[in-house]
Amino acid sequence: MATVNVNGVRAAVKARSAANTGLLGWLSAAPADYVCLQEVRATEPETRAALAPALADGWTLVQAPAAQKGRSGVAILSRREPDAVRIGHGDPQFAESGRYIEADFGKLTLASLYLPSGEAQTERQVEKDQFLTTFGEYLKPLAHAKRDVLICGDWNIAHTELDIKNWKGNLKASGFLPHERAWIGEVFADGSGWTDVQRAFHPGEAGPYSWWSYRGQAFDNDAGWRIDYHVANKPLAARAVKAVTQRAEHYELRWSDHAPIVVEYAA
């Protein structure tokens, strides 16, 4: 299973396409049967056109585009057709925001999430906090479904100081606000039914980060944030075998400001 915020699917495909190191090149070599995409920023026809070589190679696409053109958007690529697809988490405010899609594949429910980024002390933060409230309620029963459940995506919250390099300089920034960290702490708490899969493989370690600003030397200095998560319910989390954050070897090889997160789960 893999997840990546592509920062615009058409841009990610175009990036370094001549060298086959953009999104299409990554998909052709990705050791995954399912890939969750966030910040697609395209209509479904535009996404299908951009990913045409991958779809011809056997990938299946389901997508929840945002009503506002060029914004947000989530999708799931899979090597098999889903049995069912659902868009949104039940909050009408976000029904057409391109923030959440989930699909059933046999005994697995897989979701792609692009949680709002917010901006402290603005209406964008009010919107994010509304999403946290209703999405938090949606997560509670889902964790205890009698099936494997995995929510992959850009959660736009760094949980602890281990998840952000410059935590002291971001104490008042959206994505590291105390109430946001408390919210995701409840998601990951004992008894919640959910597991932060990457953290289980890296207890007590800084990172591994999954997002770096394009500004300055953030990537070269590994001054990143860990905001992209595999969040699995307990039965599936127990079968996680290996988790890898695929940080590009060099700045010029990046095709997104996020790195893919790939986790292998035993059948």
From TrEMBL:
Residues of the Endonuclease/exonuclease/phosphatase domain:
2-258
What the record notes about the co-factor is:
Probably binds two magnesium or manganese ions per subunit.
Entry annotated with the keyword Magnesium: yes
Residues noted as binding Mg(2+) in the record, renumbered to the chain? N5, E39, D154, N156, D257, H258
SUPFAM superfamilies on file: DNase I-like
What are the catalytic residues? Y114, D154, H258
GO BP annotations, alphabetical order: DNA repair
Q: Please name the GO terms that the record assigns under molecular function.
A: double-stranded DNA 3'-5' DNA exonuclease activity; metal ion binding
Residues at the site labelled Interaction with DNA substrate: H258
Q: What class of enzyme is it?
A: hydrolase
* Listed name of the protein: Exodeoxyribonuclease III Xth
Q: Which organism is it from?
A: Segniliparus rotundus (strain ATCC BAA-972 / CDC 1076 / CIP 108378 / DSM 44985 / JCM 13578)
